[in-house]
Specification:
One of its GO terms (biological process) is cell surface receptor signaling pathway. Helix content is 59%, strand content 6%. It has 14 helices and ten strands. The strands form four sheets. The protein has a three-stranded mixed sheet, with no helix packed on it. Strands 8-9-10 form a three-stranded antiparallel sheet, with no helix packed on it. A two-stranded antiparallel sheet has the order 2-5. The longest helix is centred in the last third of the chain and has 42 residues. It is elongated, with a radius of gyration of 36 Å.
Length: 504
């Protein structure tokens, strides 16, 4: 008996209630209706097999059928005819899986007990949450770093120019990954296929032909771009520290060709045969195909070359530390510190992802999943932290900006207070000067208190005249000079606290 998948049932009660108006099978013995968390199986005559179309999920072929067997005693059959370990029986989904999904199932899930499957599911769910948190933090950190390097002209140099290209690649990659994860959770799992929408009608990116494949191709392109700019970072750093002959100005035309052009060629060379040979919705399971090595091999090569750069840089640093007669403990400490700092910058932590996980040992699998997803998802945050937020030049520039902001606020508040006092004194002076009679004028001139008022008036007039001449307000029409990347408006002063400048 075959039936087609219509809608998603959320629990056993909904499943059983859906059969309330249906007559049971015309037999004395039959298996009751049941729910296996994905499909709702109808009451079935003893000794019969019932088939339902596969649920529309990634990795499953919706046109194929899953099946269950009802034993002759009216009990759902387990994995084997004599298996009584599963009270609600066993659903065979093997015919539903694509080839890639079947290989994953047989490798990681097939031989697991229900408790082990639940533990593996909890590990995967926890690592996905960790990954999303890391991606969000990396997105914010890299975006702020890009703004800082673009805003401060004093930070512009060959090194930060390379940094900005790396940040752009990371930002685009993270945005695409977050879009795909949000699509999986909201559009597909919560409001689309997971709630019963027919395959191809969920409105999710996964169910949007061509666009989904293009998005994954763009994701792989940005990953390759990131690796190439990590290679350029390693090359530039290696040449500056270890090979002084290459310390001249770098060729940015070559850098842009390697950083943005070469990944495009590699991605196109991978995407064309993928579209021709892998006829699976949204290229599901493409990362397990041999053809992935068209773009994966250059990434591995970049990591290997950057590892060589790292070792050579550490060697040169140790040699220079020996020349300064630094003791052995300090040399080791500084070399280890340099290695730890350079590992995420050069992408060497990506080696962890390439290690084959151990599906038989769930503890090792959990450690691998958490460590690898943590390093990869927080990669942008660590790079921003080391390249930008912990950089002395950046911190000094931010400190100067904050100091100027505080000086501007203090200056503005002080000016307002002076103007308020001057206005109050002028008001008193006006009232006195308009008093009729020479006797009152003489009183003003001879009375000690009013004599003080006249003195205050004269001082206020002098201050106001000086301020109008431009001697107290540094943001008026004073000639500007350039000073270390900043514009200063009072060229005749030397103290930093007396210069009110604005960053171009």
């Amino acid at each position: 008996m075959r039936k087609h998948y219509t809608n998603k049932i959320n629990n056993l009660e909904e499943c059983l209630s859906s059969f309330s108006g249906i007559e049971p099978p015309d037999a004395d013995v039959y298996c009751n209706g049941t729910w296996d968390k994905w499909l709702c199986w109808p009451p079935t005559k003893a000794g019969a097999r019932v088939q339902l179309s596969c649920p529309p999920m990634p990795g499953l072929i919706a046109t194929n059928f899953a099946y269950r067997n009802c034993r002759s005693d009216g009990i759902w059959e387990g994995k084997t005819p004599n298996d009584n370990s599963m009270p609600n029986g066993y659903t065979n989904y093997l015919n539903c899986y694509t080839q890639e999904a079947r290989e994953i199932f047989e490798k990681y899930i097939a031989d697991k007990t229900p408790a082990q499957k639940q533990l593996m599911y909890d590990i995967v769910r926890s690592t996905r949450t960790l990954e999303i948190c890391g991606l969000c933090l990396s997105l914010v950190a890299t975006f702020l770093s890009l703004i800082i390097f673009a805003y401060f002209r004093g930070l512009k140099c060959n090194r930060t120019r390379i940094h900005k290209n790396l940040f752009v690649a990371i930002i685009v990659q993270v945005i695409i990954e977050l879009i795909l994860y949000i699509d999986q959770h909201v559009a597909r799992a919560a409001g689309g296929e997971g709630s019963g929408a027919p395959s191809g009608q969920s409105g999710a990116i996964y169910d949007t032909p061509v666009f989904c494949e293009v998005l994954y191709a763009l994701l792989e392109y940005t990953k390759t771009v990131k690796f190439m700019w990590m290679f350029i970072e390693g090359l530039y750093l290696h040449n500056m520290i270890a090979v002084s002959v290459f310390s001249s100005k770098p060729s940015y035309a070559l850098y842009y060709t390697v950083g943005w052009g070469l990944p495009m060629v590699l991605t196109i060379a991978w995407a064309i045969p993928m579209a021709q040979t892998h006829h699976v919705q949204c290229w599901y399971g493409y990362y397990y195909l041999p053809i992935i090595w068209i773009i994966e091999a250059p990434r591995v090569t970049v990591i290997a070359v950057n590892l060589f750069f790292l070792l050579n840089i550490i060697r040169v640093l140790i040699m220079k530390l020996r020349e300064t007669h630094t003791n052995e403990a300090n040399r080791v400490r500084k070399a280890v510190k340099a290695a730890i700092v350079l590992l995420p910058l050069l992408g060497i932590t990506n080696f962890v992802v390439m290690i084959e996980p151990q599906p038989d040992d769930l503890v090792k699998f959990g450690c691998w999943a958490i460590i690898s997803h943590f390093l990869i998802s927080f990669e942008g945050f660590f790079i921003s932290l080391i390249y930008c937020f912990l950089n002395g030049e950046v911190r000094a520039a931010l400190g100067r900006l904050w100091q100027r902001y505080r000086q501007h606020r203090t200056f503005r508040a002080s000016s307002l207070r002076r103007m308020s006092r001057s206005f109050s004194v002028f008001t008193s002076f006006s009232e006195v000067s308009h008093t009729s009679g020479s006797q009152r004028v003489n009183q003003v001139a001879t009375t000690p208190i009013n004599g003080t008022t006249a003195s205050l008036v004269r001082n206020a007039v002098n201050r106001q005249t000086n301020q109008s001449a431009g001697t107290r307000f540094p943001l008026e029409d004073k000639p500007a000079i350039r000073n270390n990347g900043y514009v200063s408006v009072n060229a005749d002063v030397n103290s930093d606290q007396q210069i009110y400048s604005t960053v171009l």
